[in-house]
Amino acid sequence: MEFARSPLWLGTILLLALAEAGWRLVKRRGYDGRAALTTLGLVLGNIPFAALNTVVVGSVFMAAARLTPLHSPASQWETWAAGLLAVEFAYYWFHRASHRIRWMWATHSVHHSAEQFTLLASLRLGWTNLFSAGWLIYLPLVLLGLPPFVLVALLTLNLRYQFFLHTEAVGRLGPLEWVFNTPMHHRLHHASNDAYIDRNYGGMLILFDRLFGTLAREQRGEPIRYGLAHRPVIANPIRLAFGEWAMMLVELRRERGLRAKAAALVAMP
To answer: Is residue 5 scored above 50 in pLDDT?
Structure first.
């Protein structure tokens, strides 16, 4: 369930990334070429893992669709409208859990590793989504009758929308920020400052952050710092993809007792 790969979409990514790089250089914000190469390494390394993820998760969702007695027709607009809101709701909790449960954070932390907030940084995705099992959060939607095709299409739309959130080139967007997730909201989500950390979990919308009290607003005198809090900068894609897992497993071996070992796996990172 990663970005759908097509020549048009890849061309759009490249053109916008180049335009943003030019904007950053003109504005004297700098552009971290080494970080861009790290992102490229993560993208290339993610290809086989994404293929495995598609096969396994797709099979589970198709099996669930065959088992459930509930079926919403993909040909009706109501299915897509309700599905859009349902997928956003599930994404909010998937995203929130990915920050609060260490087993899931081991995958999601890769996405937060860039210390420069750019469009290319949005492509920093972990390789271990299948094993961190966050996709199970979407399974109830299939059991409630949402066709797997509709689910995957809406998740793809959600992820493509989020690509445009990863930039400093777009300022505040006024009333749109009441409903939609915007670059301003998402910049704060990627901040490692204590004032902003673990906030603004929405995908396309910001409504559930407002509803569940996880909305953050930029504060005067509190400039955003990007990257992982209390972690060194890592340029090696393999170390980024598996580093948090390694630290977690080392702690798991060190702990004594089932309760302590369980905490090493699921406690807040």
So the answer is: yes
